[in-house]
Write a structure and sequence with these properties.
Structural class: alpha+beta
Number of domains: 4
Helix content: 25-40%
Domain Multidrug resistance protein MdtA-like barrel-sandwich hybrid: 79-115
Shape: elongated
InterPro entries: Beta-barrel_RND_2, MdtA-like_BSH, RND_pump_MFP, YknX-like_C
Number of strands: 18
Family: Belongs to the membrane fusion protein (MFP) (TC 8.A.1) family.
Oligomer: single chain
Largest sheet: 6 strands, antiparallel, barrel
Radius of gyration: 43 Å
Domain CusB-like beta-barrel: 210-282
GO molecular function: efflux transmembrane transporter activity
Distance between the termini: 68 Å
Strand order of the largest sheet: 2-8-11-10-9-12
Order of helices and strands: HEEEEEHHEEEHEEEEEEEEEEH
Length: 382
């Protein structure tokens, strides 16, 4: 027979288990109720239209530009060097000086070069007169063709020697072959130079050439380039209209690009050789293109999309974008041009989301109410 004490113990344990079950059930009910409320709230939010702003694609001629970087140089330049060894006995120009074609910029032991030039000049005159005299004798019958040919050969040799001595004289006097600015002077007074040592670098800076490398993908199919705009970081308030002067039809072995030269004016002399330029080069124009603002395009993986509004719902539309600039992109495939594109608010949208289109008036009114609530002028209802 079971003792009374054992029965009391079993009854107590049963009562405790029942109490725990009842308390647990009481605690679970509010949580389940809250989850139900959250689910209902989420459903309400999904059913509530999301406000968006829309735009329509624009039909216009779209110009594709490429951006490249290059270095600027004078349109004409010359590097002078010493023809023979000698000492610098005089300097007539310094860096920054404006010089004219034919000016002497320095003298490098010019006496000997001048003497050789004068001697060669006289020898050329004598050889020329001798040749003409033999021609007259041949016409009179008192000479032979062989003597005329020999005289002509001697005259040609004298001309060649004159050209050599003239070149050495110009190098000894540092004669500039171009008009422009002395960009660099490599010598100082009393310097002893060897043949071939650099003396001056002269450039015409009234107009400049910007040389840039253009990748094959950008220049493929182009037969000519028409316009360019050039910018310099050191001159942020200025831009220069450029004219593409030439571009190579062969790829550079080192850079794997095609070399394009753009000519720009430098009337005030603000540009210097060696400055780095940023070039916006007009490549090609797409007539009557469908242009979409860049902010209306988003990508997923390798595919680009726009979000359209159709019958109050958001639709993702895949597109094939073409060239773009800072504000818009030409769409090659995927749009007809009559769609309403979501320009603002599509980051909260999903395929099929309910939307409500906001115009500028609605947006301004909503913003005004929000500002008033924030300022305490309107009491918000909890």
């Amino acid at each position: 027979m079971v003792s009374r004490k054992l029965l009391l113990t079993l009854a107590t344990i049963t009562a405790l288990v029942a109490a725990v079950f009842i308390i647990g059930s009481a605690r679970m009910n509010p949580l389940e109720a809250q989850e139900g409320n959250d689910t209902a709230s989420t459903g309400e939010e999904q059913a509530r239209p999301i406000p968006v702003r829309v735009i329509t694609p624009e039909r216009r001629d779209f110009t594709e530009y490429g951006e490249y970087f290059g270095e600027v140089r004078g349109i004409a330049r010359a590097t002078l060097s010493a023809g023979t060894a000698g000492r610098v006995v005089a300097l007539h120009a310094r860096e920054g000086d404006l010089v004219q074609k034919g000016d002497s910029l320095a003298e490098i032991d010019p006496e000997q070069a001048e003497l050789r030039y004068r001697t060669a000049l006289l020898a050329e005159e004598l050889a020329r007169e001798h040749y003409r005299r033999e021609q007259r004798f041949l016409e009179q019958g008192s000479s032979f063709q062989v003597r005329v040919d020999q005289a002509r050969l001697e005259w040609l040799q004298a001309q060649s020697r004159l050209l050599d001595t003239r070149r050495l004289r110009e190098e000894a006097l540092a004669i500039t072959p171009v008009s422009g600015t002395v960009v660099t002077r490599h010598i100082e007074l009393n310097d002893h130079l060897e043949a071939g040592d650099l003396t001056f670098h002269v450039a015409d800076l009234s107009r400049m050439i910007v040389s840039v490398g253009v990748p094959e993908a950008d220049i493929a199919g182009l037969r000519e380039l028409t316009r360019a705009k050039v910018f310099f970081s050191s001159l942020p308030d200025l831009s220069f209209q450029g004219v593409p002067r030439s571009f190579s039809r062969r790829k550079s072995d080192r850079a794997l690009t095609y070399r394009v030269e753009i000519e720009i004016e430098n009337p005030r002399g603000v540009l210097l050789e060696g400055q780095t330029a940023r070039v916006e080069l007009e490549l090609r124009t797409l007539p009557d293109a469908l242009v979409v603002p860049n902010r209306a395009i988003f990508t997923r993986g390798n595919q680009s999309f726009v979000m359209t509004v159709e019958e109050g719902r958001a639709r993702e539309v895949p597109i094939r974008p073409g060239p773009s600039d800072r504000t818009g992109t030409a769409v090659l495939e995927g749009l007809r041009g009559e769609e309403l594109l979501v320009a603002e608010g599509f980051n909260r949208l999903r395929q099929g989301s309910l939307v409500i289109v906001q115009d500028d008036t609605t947006a301004r009114a909503a913003a005004s109410v929000t500002e008033s609530v924030a300022a305490g002028q309107i009491r918000s209802t909890p």
